[in-house]
Write a structure and sequence with these properties.
Mean pLDDT: 92
Order of helices and strands: HHHHHHHHH
Strand content: under 5%
Structural class: mainly alpha
Distance between the termini: 53 Å
Length: 226
């Protein structure tokens, strides 16, 4: 499995069309790893390394939350904590379940002449995100040794975002054999649009999860008082 993963990753970085089109058009004799399995395998490795090597406990500055009501303040704190976790420790999970479909939607517009619809875009972006996940290992020493808190936007947004985008755009560039300005505009527009959608949806998900955590804790507190 490890050899198959490495072989799939190497070909995605150098000749992604062999991997992506090979799965779309000839599933029975496809020699590379299944796209979802490929993404999940890399995600598990990165999340485990993150969990064991990095301390993701964060202290939210009370002054950064403008709320007079105590419950509203607690909800806001939980939302911030969840947002940071989804953008750092559990970013691979966010990418698998949110970034893949968000990248596939703009592809329907920008790659309508190069791909065969949503399914083709979904397979392309599953492999693309799978290849992007593994680069997040390089963020671990920065998170550990930089001295900057994980609440810093550079640490939880800019750094991982640039790493993921660099690999993703590289795969796009090789898959579509980009050699002119219009080609670069197309892949950059598609990727940036998808990533913006990903940020929006991830924030919405963080809000829901943060509120659920607050509600569960509140229920436990009230149960203990009875």
């Amino acid at each position: 499995m490890v050899k198959n993963y490495i072989d799939t990753l190497k070909n995605l970085l150098l000749k992604p069309r062999n991997v992506v089109d090979g799965f779309i058009h000839s599933k029975d004799d496809h020699s590379f790893q299944h796209p979802f399995l490929f993404a999940v395998a890399g995600g598990i490795v990165v999340i485990l390394l993150n969990t064991f090597l990095v301390n993701f406990s964060v202290q939210i500055d009370p002054g950064s939350i403008q709320a007079e009501d105590e419950q509203v303040r607690q909800i806001a704190e939980w939302v911030q904590v969840v947002t940071i976790r989804l953008s750092t420790q559990f970013l691979p999970l966010s990418m698998i379940f949110l970034l893949i479909p968000m990248l596939s939607l703009p592809g329907l517009l920008f790659f309508r002449e190069q791909t065969d619809g949503f399914y083709s875009n979904l397979i392309l972006n599953t492999y693309t995100v799978g290849a992007s996940i593994i680069i997040l290992i390089a963020a671990i020493p920065v998170w550990i040794f930089s001295g900057l808190p994980l609440t810093d936007p550079f640490m939880n947004s800019t750094l991982p975002g640039l790493m993921v985008a660099a690999v993703g755009i590289w795969v796009y560039k090789n898959y579509f054999s980009v050699s002119d300005v219009m080609g670069w505009i197309r892949i950059l527009s598609s990727y940036i649009s998808g990533y913006v959608l990903f940020i929006i949806v991830k924030g919405f998900a963080a809000g829901i999860i943060g509120y659920m955590i607050f509600a569960i804790n509140r229920i436990r507190e009230l149960s203990g008082e009875l």
